[in-house]
């Protein structure tokens, strides 16, 4: 046994010349080694400080890639929806593993590696919102590593500035032009239905006849595309599980759809799939969002309007509701938002007509 350092007790020099320190970690004796006494003392102080701050993690050679793989297979499935899990899997396999898979989980420059990944994605022209979603998957996995003491702290990161994306919607003048261009088909009626209810596309695709009664439309499931298959899932949040009242126009539209579907069912014969979806295909399968988007693009082009996505119809419903002076809280409940503040932030905005009306009103006070 070599000599001990003065006044250090548990720090001593071994016969092979290396220095060693011993301390207690979670009831177990841990040994720390170094080439010099000062190196070992510095390591010892770091360990003792981490233990005192409850941030100590046992050294290991695990890589970010091996941890992400373990987290995806063993931890994430317990708390995530299948659609979210599938999205995370795509992000991990296609983006995170190629960029960060070989980095050691306990690398002292882990922050720098992740920051370099963020910066590189930004230089590639990837949208800030997408970069944040990708990094959120990584930080979710790292939080689990922190909980299990494989990591001693979370990385501190800086993200590119994210501009508030302006929502796309149809104006009062554009709406009738689109309606006149929509075909008299299941897809056309589906798009009209979104425009009249504010449903999300995945909610419309999952809507069944059994979900509709005198009270209205009961949103009880959504259809998500998971690894090439459409999978029925419960709505994502409590607020998304809601009832949307019907009006006479919507009832008429549903009656048209039911009559058309009966004819399609007779034509399909034994090929008809049982599912009782309201806006089903010609063989009874649930509607596909991509087909809805294709029909919408063609209809907008025919109407001489600029291209928009299916979600723009939901935005149009909400925007026209607000511009008509209707109650915001009621709108928030109908479209399934978690709180009124989000609805106001997203849809309460002015156009030139609204501004002029406001200024004309203020003239009466002068």
Topology readout:
Elements: E1 11-13, E2 19-25, E3 28-34, H1 37-52, H2 64-79, H3 82-100, H4 110-123, H5 128-147, H6 174-181, H7 186-197, H8 201-205, E4 212-213, E5 216-218, E6 222-226, E7 229-233, E8 243-244, H9 248-268, H10 289-302, H11 311-323, H12 328-335, H13 340-347, H14 352-363
Description of the molecule:
The protein has helices at 37-52, 64-79, 82-100, 110-123, 128-147, 174-181, 186-197, 201-205, 248-268, 289-302, 311-323, 328-335, 340-347, 352-363; strands at residues 11-13, 19-25, 28-34, 212-213, 216-218, 222-226, 229-233, 243-244. Mean pLDDT is 88; it is low at 1-9. It is built from 14 helices and 8 strands. With 366 residues, it is mainly alpha-helical.
Please write the string of helix (H) and strand (E) elements: EEEHHHHHHHHEEEEEHHHHHH
Low-confidence stretches at least 5 residues in length (pLDDT < 50)? 1-9
Taken as a percent bin, the fraction of beta residues is: 5-15%
Globular, elongated, flat, extended or rod-shaped: what is the shape? elongated
Strand order of the largest sheet: 1-2-3
Structural class: mainly alpha
- Helix fraction, binned, reads 40-55%
Largest sheet: 3 strands, antiparallel
Task: Count the E strands.
Answer: 8
Work out the radius of gyration.
29 Å
Number of helices: 14
